[in-house]
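User: I'm curious what two different proteins look like when written out as structure tokens. Can you demonstrate?

Assistant: Sure. I'll show them one after the other, since each token string lines up with its own sequence. Here's the first protein:
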Amino acid sequence: MVAVVLGLAAGVLIGAIGLALRNGLVKVPDPELGAFTTVAIGFMVAVVVAAGFGQLSHIDLGQVWPFLALGVLVPGFSQILFLRGVRDLGPSRHLVVMSTGPLFAGAAAVALLGEPLTMALAAGTVLVIGGGAMLAWERTRPAHFRLVGFAWALATAGLFASRDIFGRWLTGGHGTPPLLAATAMLASGAVTLLVFLVVTRRHEPLVRSIRASAGPFLIAGVLFGAGYLVLVAALDTGRVTIVSPLFATYALWGLLLSLLFLGKTEGIGRRTAVASLLVVSGISVIGITP
């Protein structure tokens, strides 16, 4: 039950971050800069929380380095793809397409980690992904929609799935405290994005740009840091085949928040009710699975 609660909580936080990122991009339409600012703020949040729980008092580089390596891709470069998807699809559709991640993560967990595949888990995963597919295929689309956004979202889903698999394998195999592991991934992700900006924007006033983006992406960064901590803690206590589909409910939360705060600008159609019902049904099936 701990893994179920944490997985759902991570889904809520990441669902909310879609809307926060969209608002940040309206003020600072720069996905790469927004990606760095979000991850950097998330790292600061992780340091405070992990230190509060005493998980930064003793750091063994032998345990931490795999998470530093993983963080280069996720949340490093994956965050650039994440923001590009939010920019081109809108937060609700981007999170919906990303909800296919459990399909990749679940298949890899069963094949590589030897986790059991029960009928309940399979049915719940199919329902969650089916709901996401219905939303993605809606005919009504917002004015800012760009087809390439689907490529960003699918690539992000694949990277998120790899994080779930390796995160679960590393926390289980190395005994690294989960909050320390999450902090390490956020640290290397922030450094990776900073190096990327320095290399690609040599002639720009980078420090000034980062300062200007801090305010617009502050809420997104706080949500991102909290979501990462909760997700890694969930993977530390539960199987990928349970945590990943529950985490993918960010599609539902992102949709509801977009309907509430963005309204018609997201162009969400009538299939929303049926798709949401499928996602909620999938959550229920997975949640009651022992």
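Here's a second, unrelated protein for contrast:
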Amino acid sequence: MAWTTDFVVNNIKNGYAQFVALEEGNVIGFCDITPCNRPGFGHSGSVGMGVLQEWRQQGLGRMLLEACIQKSIENGLTRIELEVYASNTIAIALYRRLGFVEEGLKRRARFLDGKYQDLLIMALLCDPAS
């Protein structure tokens, strides 16, 4: 919890793209895009997002991600990247609709409960002038 608090406070302090969806004061979805702080990579940022199961496939994730993309472009990012489980076809379809393109696959990236899962690498190239 302390790491999460530090992460959110840092995003707010630095004006990074970060949005949450609330229902009766409870977080039901979030999305953030944090810029890379390594030299030569400051033009890119990584997506983190999640929507509670019962709120999925209702457009909430799309609204959160679109808001983050817009804020990231305003902040000068020209590349937005993400990793998604290759089995998460619903999320992959959303990312494709928003212009993300597949760039690679991390095979056996995660091992949990006796099973390997692949991660799909996707990215969106943005023009700050648009």
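A detail about the second structure: Strands lie at 17-23, 26-35, 44-51, 79-85, 101-112, 115-125.
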